[in-house]
Specification:
8-stranded parallel β-sheet; alpha/beta; Glutamate mutase, C-terminal domain; 493 residues; two-stranded antiparallel ribbon; 51% helix; 8% strand; 2 domains; TIM Barrel
Length: 493
């Protein structure tokens, strides 16, 4: 499949829409013009993009988490509980994994069994089974804006249902994250093409005066150096902007231990994300940042310890100046979060933020953060400029060629088409460095910086930092420590 970063024509878009809406019978309920009129009649308080923009202007920091279950009545109950008891500022519809992989018939069978037994057999809401009119019941049952969430290489049908049903935010990881972590053999070109449709759909709503909040991630943070999370995400936002997306949310959930590095990554993501949007001529976009912490690493099973990890997200949010704080719940190590623990996690995080928000803490200008900003920025620019060169100015073509060359890569990627030749490891202070950078386009200064930081840990702990160290770093926080000693497997922690 040939791909380029060019806006789909209305002819291309509507021809494809016909095929998309035929994927499942509820597609017949989607009437785009009627859906736009439904959105026009929604109060602004239920529009994700409008609420965030108003909060940004007012310097209000919002808090949110994610939750999804089945059947619909249970999902509405959980959402209302998160709104009323958790005081969440935004709500979500997490789509079940069967629907995400287009197994609509299987999802419907599990839904019927869930309805029969009163016990959810799905890890989210099968929105395709319910359709537009049922989706609107959820919109009408809560007071907060709703975002659809479901990482997958093809959420075209689900987004048609969700947007027509009144959702005003869309977050599926994006083409890059979905390719790296939610596919096995699907080429990046296919992922990009599917997301171009999703972004064009959002752009169409925008053209009709309905703001839609777009979000993406560059990858999953599992001892992953920040530049590998930031560069792919910027690429996705450029793909979205080309299709007419106007409201862009940068998100960094990749805090993995070191506070200075987490704050620096958020600062660099905003700075370079906005810079590349400007560079490519997308000057009519609004942006905001969502920050979180430790979302894809092993969590402590001890709930008391888990609360400490949850409390780091509002600290990173406050110190970095992000507009939205995303909360991972204390149930992370155990199960799909209960509504009670989800709500208490948000309340706990908000309390941490409230304790610190009136203190004048200029952490960004500390020496530690400045150093992290300097090198993360150099790394991201190195990757982005090579991608642009590969594509001769076309970011979609460049991304495909960069993946083939190993210039865009992820540790622990599920895709067999990714090089998977990069590896991160923590240094002596818990910051994630490149143990292996393979074909990443880094100069000697960057490589030396990472090597010396890793050597400092080796000297501190009296060991050789290698793959076994990476394994210990993946599980260390779940064991109650940021850095484990070489004999950690024999220790009682």
């Amino acid at each position: 499949m040939e791909i380029n970063n060019k806006r789909l024509s209305n002819r291309e878009f509507f021809r494809e829409r016909k095929e998309v809406l035929e994927m499942w019978p509820t597609g017949r309920e989607v009437d785009l013009e009627e859906a736009i009129e439904f959105h026009r009649n929604l109060p602004e308080t239920k529009n994700y993009a409008i609420k965030i923009q108003q909060g940004k202007e007012d310097k209000t920091v919002y808090f949110c988490s994610m939750m999804g279950t089945a059947p619909l009545e249970r999902d509405i109950e959980f959402s209302r509980f998160l709104q009323e008891e958790g005081h969440s500022d935004f709500l979500s519809t997490i789509v079940d994994s069967m629907s995400r992989t287009l197994l609509f018939e299987a999802a419907e069978r599990e839904l019927k069994e869930s309805e029969r037994t009163g016990r959810s057999l799905l890890n989210g809401l099968p929105l395709a089974s319910y359709g537009v009119h049922e989706a609107r019941k959820k919109i009408e049952s809560v007071d907060m804006p709703l975002m659809i969430w479901g990482p997958s290489p093809d959420m075209r049908f689900m987004d048609e249902i969700a947007l027509a049903g009144g959702h005003t935010g869309v977050r599926h990881g994006g083409a890059m994250c979905s390719f790296f972590h939610y596919t096995k053999s699907l080429p990046l070109e296919n992922c990009i093409r599917n997301f171009q449709y999703i972004y064009r759909l959002q752009g169409y709503y925008e053209e009709k005066g309905i703001p839609i909040q777009h979000g993406a991630e560059g990858g999953l943070s599992c001892i992953t150096p920040p530049s590998l999370l930031i560069a792919p995400q910027i690429i996705d936002h450029l793909l979205a902007a080309e299709q007419g997306v106007k409201h862009i949310q940068f998100s960094y959930w990749g805090g993995q231990g070191n506070l200075a590095q987490a704050v620096a990554a958020v600062v660099v993501l905003r700075k370079l994300g906005e810079a590349y949007l400007e560079k490519f001529g997308y000057k009519d976009t609004t942006t905001n940042v969502m920050a979180g912490y430790a979302t894809n690493i092993a969590f402590p099973a001890d709930y008391a310890q888990a609360y400490a990890i949850v409390g780091l997200a509002p600290i990173v949010t406050l110190l970095s100046g992000a507009e939205v704080c995303y909360i991972t719940t204390i149930d992370e190590a155990h199960k799909i979060p209960s509504k009670e623990n989800n709500a208490s996690s948000i309340r706990s995080a908000r309390m941490m933020f409230n304790m610190l928000k009136d203190q004048n803490i200029d952490f960004v200008n500390s020496q530690a953060v400045k150093l992290e900003i300097e090198f993360i920025e150099k790394e991201v620019k190195s990757i982005m400029e090579r991608v642009i060169d590969f594509g001769e100015g076309d970011i979609a073509i460049g991304a495909v060629r960069a993946v083939e060359a190993g210039v865009l890569d992820q540790p622990f990627a599920s895709s067999q088409l990714a090089a998977r030749r990069v590896m991160g490891v923590r240094d002596a202070e818990g910051a994630v460095r490149y143990l292996s950078s393979d074909n990443l386009p880094f100069d000697k200064e960057i490589l030396t910086f990472h090597r010396e930081k890793i050597e400092e840990r080796g000297k501190k702990q009296g060991m050789i930092v290698d793959y076994d160290t990476v394994v210990s770093d993946i599980v260390s926080i779940s064991k109650g420590s940021l850095l484990l000693t070489p004999d950690w497997q024999e220790m009682e922690l």
